[in-house]
Amino acid sequence: MAVQIDPTSYRNLDIKAHDDGVWVVTLNRPTKRNALDIDTIEELVTFFSAAPRAGVRAVVLAGAGDHFCAGLDLIEHHDEDRSPADFMHVCLRWHEAFNKMEYGGVPVIAALQGAVVGGGLELASSAHVRVMDQSAYFALPEGQRGLFTGGGATIRVTDLVGKARMIDMMLTGRVYQGQEAVDLGLAQYIVEGSSMDKAMELARKAAQNLPLSNFAICSAVSHMQNMSAMDAAYAEAVVAGVVNTQPDARARLAAFADKSGARVRPNAE
Ligand code: 1HE
Q1: Fewest CB atoms less than 10 Å from the CB: which of 155, 206, 232, 262?
Q2: Which atom in ligand 1 lies closest to the alpha carbon of residue 94?
């Protein structure tokens, strides 16, 4: 059942495992601003298909260089001169990759800098947590390029910012950055320094949770959003039945009961 991930078999992704179960996956085509060509998408499918069964406790997803990701590889798209059916299949591979991320059960923390645009925003919005630095900015330039979103923005970006803002971003190319981007929900954290450092800190924290708890958090919440409230409540009860009785949780519950377990306190001033 356990699968192995061989970092040396990836060309467009740089993959590094850390001792604490945190894996750093970096889009590694900085000279192309990490634009998503089909090979990169296939490597994302491969990695995120394996991660849940390979002991990966959390993933930090990053982009090499000054920009997280410039979206669809427009040069490849231009040169391939794809048919409608061809591009539909390209988009289905994007969905395969991004659904594996969102529904795979392994926490994915995105570390963002520079452009997070078009398909780059679709990729980032498939992560569970987004950390931006002061240089990061978000946009959907598809409208200006004669294109439309094809990697899930109509679903995930709309979930983050709402329908009206999503349509405005696509119609006018509006760019969001800084604290406003956090206030709208495009990222959960903004940092003065490196988004990578903060993302690693959050990933290490998440990696300390029991894997089955993280599996539920990083798959069940998304699945339940797709259900009616009645069905979601039922599914939540079933998931909680499994997770909340896991044998590995007993030591944590015992620690609370004997008062050695950490208490929940407000943040220090
Ligand atoms: C690219 C791409 C790309 C850069 N595809 N090659 N996305 C966009 O519309 C964003 C397009 N990119 C940009 O607006 C800018 O490149 C950036 C703001 C991201 C960066 O600017 P800058 O000045 O640092 O770089 P540059 O000079 O524009 O580009 C550097 C190189 O990266 C250059 O290649 P070179 O071989 O001439 O050196 C660029 O061609 C290359 N490059 N971005 C291919 N996107 C499933 S549907 C999803 C639909 C979409 O995602 S549409 C949105 C596409």
Answers
A1: 262
A2: 46
Alpha-carbon distance 155 to 162, whole Å? 10
Q: For ligand 1, what atom is nearest to the CA of residue 144?
A: 9
Q: How far is the CA of 35 from the centre of ligand 1 (A)?
A: 6
Whether residue 120 sits in one domain with residue 234 = no
Same domain, 71 and 175: yes
Mean pLDDT value of segment 229-238:
98
Res 1: pLDDT: 66
Same domain, 155 and 252: no
* Residues of the domain holding 251: 227-257
Q: Report yes or no on whether pTM surpasses 0.90.
A: yes
CATH number, domain with residue 157: 3.90.226.10
Report the C-alpha gap between 12 and 42 in whole angstroms: 10
Measured by CA distance, the residue closest to atom 3 of ligand 1 is 73
Span 69-115, pLDDT tens digits: 999 999 999 999 999 999 999 999 999 999 999 999 999 999 999 99
